[in-house]
Design a protein that fits this description.
Length: 124
């Protein structure tokens, strides 16, 4: 089976679940599930951040996040488009730092999110 669980990270409270058959692809209707989670929240409460695995690496989900001001983290399989972004000298990569402002080696963080707005359509 392929269970999907939407929960609030800070509290662990479950917002929505979908217990799908095992023959359903993991990337089937993930956007619909995100919307189900949003609909389950109290009135005037919105999803502000989304973390989803590689099955959620879909243009429709990324577009939905941009359109609804949702910060997101989506695991993506390395592909040529992502490699091109990583080696693009014009990108404004900054080191990721810990709580004491010490750089975490080997973990770059893209400071300028506008890169995604420009290139997201070409990634998928």
């Amino acid at each position: 089976y392929m269970p999907m669980v939407g929960h609030i990270a800070q509290t662990g409270q479950i917002v929505a679940t979908d217990f799908r058959a095992g023959n359903v692809s993991p990337n089937t209707d993930n956007l619909g599930f995100i919307k189900t989670c949003q609909d389950a929240l109290p009135k005037d409460t919105n999803i502000k951040k989304l973390r989803i695995d590689a099955a959620g690496y879909q243009a429709s989900i990324i577009d939905y996040c941009f359109e609804n001001d949702i910060e997101f983290s989506i695991r993506a399989k390395m592909c040529q488009s992502l490699k091109d972004i990583l080696v693009d000298k014009d990108n404004q990569w900054q080191p990721l730092v810990d709580k004491k402002a010490k750089p975490l080696m080997g973990k770059p963080l893209l400071e300028c999110a506008t890169l995604w707005v420009i290139k997201v359509k070409s990634l998928i």
